[in-house]
# Entry
Amino acid sequence: MTEFPSQAARTAVAAALAEDESGQDITTAWSVPEGMAAVAEIRARQCGITGGLPVVAEVFAQVDPEVTVEALVPDGARLTGDDVLVRLSGSARSLITGERTALNFLQRMCGTATLTDRYVQAVAGTEARILDTRKTAPGLRALDKYAVTVGGGRNHRLNLAAMVLLKENHIAAAGGVTTAIDAVRRGMARTGQKVETDVEVQTVAQAVAALDAGARWIMLDNMPVTDIEMVVKIRAERADASRILLEASGTVRLDSVRAIAETGVDLISVGALTHSAPALDLTMLLTTDSVPCPR
# Structure
């Protein structure tokens, strides 16, 4: 997902503004003069990666279409601290009413992009690519996954219909790795669909079973590095090795991701990118003396 998900942002922003009762901002209505115009800036207070800047324009388009929003850096820019990301101008009331909602989205998305970048940098020089997961905030998945790509990561499946991912419970219910893979193939044949299939395994023996069943994408879940290395070696000995993707997953941390990448896996999926990324510290402040709005 390399393009900003405009429709998803529109829906999420509308829900956020409704939750905030933005049309009934009594504090602003009672304390800020009605005819006041102002300029505001969104500024970073720490280093990081910008992600999700178009969401600011969407927030203020819904709060007050007369507000002008100017992004001063692109998504993916490296922030060194105290950088100005966005300049806004318009009704002071509108700027203040939309402030928190805009920052809530932008801080989260910049935080996700920043954490993703740290993982990508941690595996630099290896062949491994960093993937996200479906461990996203309900209703914000498209925005979360966009932020991952801004940080240099890649998206795993967007939703349950995008591809097959045979996880531990599917395999247990089906009666084993081989049985589950065969069942999926029958399902594809029956429906006429052909999609990518990722098979989750927890042991070397299960990985071998998946390879023998013809799996082309295998997720090595919560496996020790030594076991991952063993599966990588087993794959290398197969005639079809170049057609098989190996993905490591499960409790991947910044202090462990390099060692995992150096095993020779192709992909490393990291749930923390979207479920545990700390928000980037941003602030939005009025910057000039207020003036009467033109009539």
Summary: The CA atoms of residues 107 and 280 lie 5 Å apart.
